[in-house]
Design a protein that fits this description.
By secondary structure, the chain is α/β, with parallel strands linked by helices. It is built from 2 helices and 9 strands. It has a 4-stranded mixed sheet with strand order 2-1-4-7, with no helix packed on it. A 3-stranded mixed sheet has the order 3-9-8, with no helix packed on it. Strands 5-6 form a two-stranded antiparallel sheet.
């Protein structure tokens, strides 16, 4: 029974994708273990499979817990945000670093977007903008409201320089 509670707790921590991936690995391994051999070798193989899945689930859980209070997004010469999508804890701070040779922005203001779908904010959040950042400059913002924030670079929006911050 403790194993089931542990399994359910791990599933809740890592989310659906990680849980389903672990379940797939477990199912494939158990099927392979049960396809031949004696009962004792099948049980040993199944136990190994469960151990391997638990190890994978623990790794996924640690990755999920790494959603921290700070993150850095680089603005590149390829006119992309790296990473394009990040997840951060509510109350966390994101810093945009202009690592390119040209100006960029991190603009969270739908009224400045050339295309309506390129920028959106959770309900009640006021628009904000880094302004144009010169090469080497940074801009930081603390996210106090959970939700999905879509943003863009003013000079490079039409080139597809779009990003997303997910605040949990």
């Amino acid at each position: 029974m403790d194993g089931i509670r542990s399994w359910e707790a791990a599933r809740n921590r890592i989310g659906r994708r990680g849980f389903l991936g672990g379940l797939t690995v477990l199912s494939a391994t158990v099927l392979a273990a049960c396809s031949g051999g004696t009962a004792s070798s099948s049980n040993a193989s199944a136990a190994t499979a469960v151990s391997n899945v638990n190890t994978a689930l623990n790794s996924e859980a640690k990755a999920a817990q790494s959603i921290g209070n700070s993150a850095t997004v680089k603005m590149t010469d390829a006119n992309v945000y790296d990473p394009a999508t990040i997840t951060i804890a509510k109350g966390g701070t994101v810093t945009w670093q202009n690592a390119s040779q040209t100006v960029h922005s991190a603009t969270f203001d739908p009224s400045k977007a050339a295309k309506a779908g390129d920028c959106s904010l959770p309900q009640g959040v006021q628009p904000f903008d880094s302004g144009l950042l010169q090469p080497g400059q940074t801009f930081s913002h603390t996210f106090d409201t959970a939700g999905t924030y879509k943003y863009f670079c003013v000079p490079h929006e039409t080139l597809g320089m779009l990003g997303t911050v997910i605040v949990q």
